[in-house]
Amino acid sequence: MARALDTRALIMLLTAIPALYGCDSLDDDRIPAVPVNVTFQTIADWNIYGVNAAMDWQRFIRSERIPANFFYTDITQTGFGGVLLVCDVLGEPQAYDLACPVECRNDVRVAVSSEGEQLAVCPKCGSSYNVFSLAGHPVSGPAAEHGYALRKYRVVAGRAGAYRLITF
Description:
- The structure is a single chain.
- It is built from 3 helices and 11 strands; from the N terminus they run αβαββββββββαββ.
- Strand 8 and strand 9 form a beta hairpin.
- The longest helix has 20 residues.
- The N terminus is likely disordered.
- By secondary structure, it is α+β, with helices and mostly antiparallel strands.
């Protein structure tokens, strides 16, 4: 009986997923593929500059030295518009390019709203993206109308439990 319930629950979940995203596919490739390499040398560095709890976030923009005291090196790269590092609702680190895919400019960057919904919002077009539970998918504005998602980057475990953000 329990196995039948598990199977039914799985089928319901699989049929609900397309309803959440509609029939259209998402385009997360509008932002140019620019290298990302942000390395945290130690756990202490991750604890200072990384994300440590659900809904925590940090921006990395090498050209503007954000965060100010981060140890940028010659091999550090922060993508097209910078990197938005977040800790999703499950406590897992995720990374996105800060550039809005509607605007496609490296100086038009999304910012995490201070409102209760915790979305990344473009100051120019008004599009909002769910970076904490929907993998950077658009939820409103021109991005949602056209299916433009934020470019996602990989976060991998590095030495001694610290993390590394990379493009491939």
